Amino acid sequence: MRRQIVAGNWKMNNDLAQTQTLITDLKQQTKTSKAEVKIAPAFTNLWSAFEATKETDIEVVAQTMHFADNGAFTGEVSASMLKSIGVKTVILGHSERRTYFNESDEDLAKKVNAALAHDMEIIFCIGEVLEDRAAGREEAVVAAQIKNALFHLEGEAFKTIVLAYEPVWAIGTGETASPEQAQDMHAFIRNTLASKYGDTVANTVPVLYGGSVKPSNAKEIFSKPDVDGGLIGGASLKAEDFYAIVNAF
Ligand SMILES: O=C[C@H](O)COP(=O)(O)O
């Protein structure tokens, strides 16, 4: 059985006090599923979040990082800096990073390499915009994102890579891909991996769904055979809602 993962991407929300309050609330929730739980606070709150979750099964992850180890990259944070405070997982390729910060497939391939060089796990995001889906090219777009940023890797690398399919038109919009649309794309993602790395890799890599997942729709989405969990934005900012999703398996 594949790993089940529910990761909360807090994006640019929660200052230090709010981070501490939310973690206190999260610690009061009860987990009834086997899903791994991860939260991604802002950089400024990673250390505090890491300390506050030490005795729990909540893993603190980063929302992005730079591909260089150090140097003249004002405003950036490197894999070694994240590792130095205990962060072992990073989200890469989120559509907001691609759109607002111009992260290209080429940049992402370098970030993937840097994360792997530091033995970090990666939650790698892919997904099409509305125009792509309207034009029927969503599979081509997603396949290209995977190939351009990941297909230079050896199959072994996929032991520490999780994919997150996030149709951009469903992020923060309240609109969700139907469970069938999610399943179809997740199956396509596995086929894409299988074409290069074979069935073992394709069937082992967890593929999460992201895009307006809520307590009310999580169960149906997670019931699909190729959906291994979720990358949750808005609903991860309330402890009860987040754990309702965690427990939707
Ligand atoms: O990283 C999370 C996704 O962008 C989903 O965000 P959302 O749940 O607010 O739609």
Describe the structure.
- The protein contains eleven helices and eight strands.
- It has 249 residues and is of the alpha/beta class.
- The protein has one domain: TIM Barrel.
- The strands form two sheets. It has a four-stranded parallel β-sheet with strand order 3-2-1-8.
- Helix 1 (16-27) packs across helix 11, helix 5 (105-117) packs across helix 7 and helix 10 (215-222) runs parallel beside helix 11 (239-246).
- The protein is globular and about 45 Å long.
- It binds glyceraldehyde-3-phosphate.
- Glyceraldehyde-3-phosphate binds next to strand 8.
> What structural category arises from helix and sheet content?
alpha/beta
Tell me the number of helical segments per DSSP (H or I, 4 or more residues long).
Answer: 11
Mean pLDDT: 97
The sequence of SSEs as H and E is EHEHEHEHHEHHEHHEHEH
Number of domains: 1
Q: Indicate the radius of gyration in whole angstroms.
A: 17 Å
- CATH homologous superfamily classification: Aldolase class I
**What percentage of the residues does DSSP assign to strands (E)?**
5-15%
The helix content is: 40-55%
| Global morphology | globular
Ligands, ions, cofactors: glyceraldehyde-3-phosphate
Number of strands: 8
Largest beta-sheet characterization: 4 strands, parallel
* CATH topology name: TIM Barrel
Strand order of the largest sheet: 3-2-1-8
First-to-last CA distance: 13 Å
GO molecular function: triose-phosphate isomerase activity
EC number: 5.3.1.1
Subunit structure: Homodimer.
Subcellular location: Cytoplasm
